[in-house]
């Protein structure tokens, strides 16, 4: 025990022979400071028996200069190895580290394992790696994990991998993950999956992505889903696709949506379809839109329908358009309606067409209007008819105009009436003509008035005829004037009479002229009177 009285400086002067001759009792009597004073050569000369004699408190005194020379450190038991600090572990040579058996390695503190250098970790044998406890795994830094080679990662047990933190998982290379066995991949829990970076996810093979179970997929965030390649997304099976939450679906970019296959889109549930953003819906190509099942189409909200581009609308087939509900149709804009093919428009059910807003109806082209069936035209609401532009009204063909109901005609504005072609006007039946009110009739242009046939004018009531502007009356053809009934002619207001041209006046039959009231006769202008025939003058003087 005399050696315990020596100072560290004296201990440092002891020869290798003296040190190696010390008994285990002598060695155990040294303080950690005295142990730290032994020369590297002296430490290297200690036998395995002497090495195992060191107590935990003494081991803490071993220095960076001593440890690399301590060949019999491999004789340390678990208790002794547990005493190693992080810095001491890092002072060991790679040969010493790789020389530790599984029991010894398993005895190292977690912090000590974390102190191993990357080169030390890379040198660990498969047996040593498998011996690392979950507690020790927790001691590995992200740098440590990143330093493991693919072969080493490949031997990690499912228990070890399942204890990884998110940061440790993020440190694995894409190659490492792509080389996981099925058992290793299955071992990844929510914590590990959430730790996968965008770079890792973007580099995963379809085999790995296909191997994710619903629990693992459910742990991915929206941004992680967005980091997957379209190839990976398209490789999802039905269960995986339908397992995506609303938040995860929101992470799929418009670019990814545009590249999804018909199969992938078709696998979406109606709930998921309804959860897509308007931007995502607008990114679905027309082939995929046309492949949607009726229930999927009808799952789209009004806001989503409004997000459909004109290009998409133009590419829809009759089945897809026919699947739209009246609520969805009501959400269509005039631009979207205008983009629909005439075939699609003519294929709309009367209830669908009737659901279009007055503004949306303005998107119908002249070709669309011509393509409408009789049932569809009759199905237009008065609001829709009243919303037609003058260009649309002008584009109506005789068939469409001819089936308009009196209620529909009755809501025409003066501007719409003025836009009707003369063919359509002259094609109106008496019921349609009689539906025109005073304000509407005043919308007739002089060109229209001049083209009205005798039949059309005869269809007007005497009240309607009396409501025409004098200029409109003055535009009527001489044939029409000559064919006017006494009732129509005598219905002319005093204000209308001055509008008659001398030619028109000369074509009034003697019978009709003789039935004019004194008020009407008094309304003739001097110019008109001076153009009277002798017979008319006689009547004028007699009745005026």
Please provide a written account of the structure.
- The mean pLDDT is 93.
- The protein is mainly alpha-helical and 544 residues long.
- It is built from 64 helices and no strands.
Task: Summarize it.
By secondary structure, the chain is mostly helical. The chain contains 64 helices and no strands.
**How confident is the prediction overall: mean pLDDT?**
93
Low-confidence stretches: none
Helix content estimate? 55-70%
Q: Can you count the helices?
A: 64
Q: Tally of extended strands?
A: 0
Based on helices, strands and strand pairing, what is the structural class?
mainly alpha
Largest sheet: none
What is the first-to-last residue Cα distance? 160 Å
Classify the beta-strand content into a percent band: under 5%
- Specify Rg, calculated over alpha carbons: 49 Å
**Shape field:** rod-shaped
Secondary structure elements and pairings:
Blueprint: H1 8-11, H2 16-20, H3 24-28, H4 32-37, H5 40-44, H6 48-51, H7 56-59, H8 78-82, H9 86-91, H10 94-99, H11 102-107, H12 110-114, H13 118-123, H14 126-131, H15 134-137, H16 142-147, H17 150-155, H18 158-162, H19 166-170, H20 174-178, H21 182-187, H22 190-195, H23 198-202, H24 206-210, H25 214-219, H26 222-227, H27 230-234, H28 238-242, H29 246-249, H30 254-259, H31 262-266, H32 270-275, H33 278-283, H34 286-291, H35 294-297, H36 302-306, H37 310-315, H38 318-322, H39 326-330, H40 334-339, H41 342-347, H42 350-355, H43 358-361, H44 366-371, H45 374-379, H46 382-387, H47 390-395, H48 398-402, H49 406-409, H50 414-419, H51 422-427, H52 430-434, H53 438-441, H54 446-451, H55 454-459, H56 462-466, H57 470-475, H58 478-483, H59 486-490, H60 502-506, H61 510-514, H62 518-523, H63 526-529, H64 534-543
């Amino acid at each position: 025990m005399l050696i315990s009285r020596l100072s560290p400086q004296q201990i440092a002067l002891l020869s290798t022979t003296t040190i190696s001759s010390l008994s285990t009792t002598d060695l155990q009597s040294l303080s950690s400071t005295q142990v730290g004073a032994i020369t590297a050569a002296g430490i290297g000369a200690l036998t395995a028996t002497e090495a195992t004699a060191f107590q935990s408190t003494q081991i803490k005194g071993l220095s960076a200069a001593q440890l690399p020379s301590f060949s019999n450190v491999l004789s340390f038991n678990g208790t002794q190895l547990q005493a190693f600090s992080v810095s001491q572990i890092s002072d060991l040579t790679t040969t010493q580290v790789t020389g530790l058996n599984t029991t010894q390695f398993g005895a190292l503190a977690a912090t000590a394992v974390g102190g191993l250098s990357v080169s030390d970790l890379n040198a660990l044998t498969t047996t040593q790696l498998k011996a690392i406890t979950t507690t020790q795994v927790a001691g590995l830094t992200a740098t440590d994990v990143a330093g493991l080679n693919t072969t080493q990662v490949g031997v990690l047990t499912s228990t070890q991998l399942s204890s990884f933190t998110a940061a440790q998982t993020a440190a694995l290379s894409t190659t490492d993950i792509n080389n996981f066995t099925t058992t290793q991949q299955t071992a990844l829990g929510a914590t590990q999956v959430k730790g996968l970076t965008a770079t890792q996810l973007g580099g995963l093979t379809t085999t790995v992505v296909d191997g994710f179970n619903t629990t693992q997929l459910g742990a991915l965030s929206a941004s992680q889903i967005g980091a997957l390649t379209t190839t990976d997304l398209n490789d999802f099976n039905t269960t995986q696709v339908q397992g995506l939450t609303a938040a995860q679906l929101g992470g799929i970019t418009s670019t990814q949506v545009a590249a999804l296959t018909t199969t992938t889109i078709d696998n979406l549930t109606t709930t998921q379809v309804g959860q897509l953003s308007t931007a995502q819906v607008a990114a679905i190509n027309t082939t995929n839109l046309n492949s949607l099942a009726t229930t999927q189409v009808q799952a789209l909200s009004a806001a989503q329908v409004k997000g459909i581009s004109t290009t998409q609308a133009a590419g829809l087939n009759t089945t897809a358009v026919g699947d739209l509900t009246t609520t969805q149709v009501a959400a269509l804009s005039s631009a979207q309606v205008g983009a629909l093919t005439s075939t699609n428009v003519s294929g709309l059910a009367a209830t669908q067409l009737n659901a279009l807003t007055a503004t949306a109806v303005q998107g119908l082209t002249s070709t669309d209007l011509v393509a409408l069936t009789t049932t569809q035209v009759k199905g237009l609401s008065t609001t829709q008819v009243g919303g037609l532009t003058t260009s649309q009204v002008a584009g109506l063909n005789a068939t469409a105009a001819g089936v308009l109901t009196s209620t529909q005609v009755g809501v025409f504005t003066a501007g719409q009436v003025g836009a009707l072609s003369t063919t359509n006007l002259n094609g109106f039946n008496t019921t349609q003509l009689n539906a025109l009110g005073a304000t509407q009739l005043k919308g007739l242009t002089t060109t229209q008035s001049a083209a009205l046939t005798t039949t059309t004018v005869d269809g007007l009531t005497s009240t309607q005829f009396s409501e025409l502007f004098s200029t409109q009356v003055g535009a009527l053809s001489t044939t029409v004037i000559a064919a006017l009934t006494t009732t129509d002619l005598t219905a002319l207001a005093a204000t209308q009479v001055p509008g008659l041209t001398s030619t028109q006046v000369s074509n009034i039959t003697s019978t009709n002229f003789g039935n004019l009231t004194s008020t009407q006769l008094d309304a003739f202008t001097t110019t008109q009177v001076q153009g009277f025939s002798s017979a008319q003058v006689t009547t004028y003087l007699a009745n005026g």
